[in-house]
Amino acid sequence: MKKLLLSLFVIVSILTANWVAAAADLEVNTPAIAALKASMQARHGQLSPFYSAGAIGLTKDGMIAVKDATAVPLSQRGSLSGLVSAENADRANLYKEIATANGHAEWQGDIQNTFAGRWIDKAQSGWFYQSGGGWAKK
After folding, report:
1. Does the residue 69 lie in any domain?
2. Cα(114)–Cα(19) distance, rounded to whole angstroms?
3. Which strands, in side-by-side order, build the sheet including 56-58?
4. Which of 4, 14, 78, 99 has its CB 3.0 to 4.6 Å from that of 108, i.e. a possible disulfide?
């Protein structure tokens, strides 16, 4: 009985996540969303070399993380940490704002999961992303 209920829960969760992603307007634009996107776009040029060097990667939860700090000179590690923190704060706020703009704050987790897959799909060749329990190179 427990296995049946667990299986049913998993199926409902998957279907709900797919429905939310299909129902949510992920391209909705508000002043707050536009500001977050502009901030992320401005930061992308600074992050790009770190992606290429394998120092950072895309996480399975729609964020970014330092994958290999040793790929960055010691003098740049503090700056990298600040960039990663700022990017993750903007990403979290972006997911929240998109859910709010859709009138469904409760969709934030599903929107974040949808974006996680999109970020990985759009990643450049050579960038790292989380897969399973480790990192994979695109």
Report:
1. yes
2. 11
3. 64-66, 56-58, 128-131, 134-137
4. 99
